[in-house]
Amino acid sequence: EDQVTQSPEALRLQEGESSSLNCSYTVSGLRGLFWYRQDPGKGPEFLFTLYSAGEEKEKERLKATLTKKESFLHITAPKPEDSATYLCAVQAPLIKAAGNKLTFGGGTRVLVKP
Amino acid sequence: DTGVSQDPRHKITKRGQNVTFRCDPISEHNRLYWYRQTLGQGPEFLTYFQNEAQLEKSRLLSDRFSAERPKGSFSTLEIQRTEQGDSAMYLCASSLGSGARYEQYFGPGTRLTVT
Q: Which residues from B are below 8 Å from A4, CB to CB?
């Protein structure tokens, strides 16, 4: 069964202190790895999709990278508004309709202090 | 951009009561998903619709849970004889197609509290 593990569970940063979040996954034939941001009491907000090892995507202060076993979300010079829970999810190969679901990790709660 | 909407946003019910939640996907999206999220955890898949057809159900979806998507538009998720363990955030998502090229967009969720 697909498994996704995120670390650390929580991260406290000072404004401007860059850091990385890890997402390790076990899935046969990854179709896509997704990063979402979730603010308290809200639904997840889509950030990136990565499809193959070596791929990188950037958005403002966020950069996501992918290897064959894990993905990293790098936060460069974070600001307080980057405080949120960051969720990683994988989508497995399509077997009939079973592959459309996302399997999520537990998330990393990021707090950026001014 | 209207996004995915869910109603109600919050629901408090007593154990044993039935509850129904509604999800309106992004208008041109024909795929619709339900997930459940408990505090401090990531969302867990419950069920998936392609148009009006329910194509997959998780083992998490016990007999007390039923989901429908009549006419392939909005969807409802009903929980019968609620239990305290049903307390969670129920999230709906939609996508334009299947596969990783079509990201899933989530609604704001319905937070259910069973007392």
A: 42
